[in-house]
Amino acid sequence: MGKVAGAQRFDGQNWYKQHIAKRTREALDEQDQAFAVRHAESTLNELACYLRRCAEHWGKSPAPCEIVGGDYIAERFGSWAEALRAAHLNTIYKKSSNRTNGRYQQEMKRQIELYRTERDAKRAERAKKELERQRNAGKASQKQDVPDYASSD
After folding, report:
1. What is the pLDDT of residues 68-82, one digit of tens each?
2. CA-CA distance, 31 to 20, in Å (whole number)?
3. Residue 10's pLDDT band (boundaries 50, 70, 90)?
4. pLDDT digits (tens, 9 = 90+) for 15-54
5. If we measure between CA atoms, which residue out of 89, 44, 41 comes closest to residue 66?
6. DSSP per residue over the chain, as a string?
């Protein structure tokens, strides 16, 4: 078969990386949205306490992308610097990209495991259906091979 003009070779590794990155971003977005819903009635003091706990966990003043609900907290305080001030934290923080922060890395590992589990379940289901199809095909061919003696009388 000839090549199609403009067609590119499928890069499975690139697709996999993009797929995992997309799943990771979507999962983090869902976590942030759930946080906003759960903490809609939280006071600013409660949010500042949460922010201090997160800073203790990471050992530094976190960036908004490094904690669950970071953007929501920044919105509630008016800015991320104001949120850090209210939590009595250093307002100087490293603005890390999503892919280099610990929260993203942890979620990416979780998404890789989920993807593998889902993939393996799909493969097992396909194998089960194929086996069932082969059994049904075998039964059908056996029925055709059996002579019908009742109709010869």
Report:
1. 999 999 999 999 999
2. 16
3. confident
4. 999 999 999 999 999 999 999 999 999 999 999 999 999 9
5. 89
6. -PPPTT-----HHHHHHHHHHHHHHHHHHHHHHHHHHHTTT--HHHHHHHHHHHHHHHTSPPPGGGSTTHHHHHHHHSSHHHHHHHTT--S------GGGSHHHHHHHHHHHHHHHHHHHHHHHHHHHHHHHHHHHHHHHHHHHHS---GGG-
Please compute, for residue 130, the number of CA atoms within 13 A of its CA located in the half-sphere on the CB side.
6
Asked if residues 108 and 20 have their Cβ atoms less than 8 Å apart, the reply is yes
CA distances from 4 to 12, 15, 142 (A): 19, 21, 45
Total length of the chain = 153
pLDDT top residue among 93 and 15? 15
Average pLDDT estimate for 109-134:
95
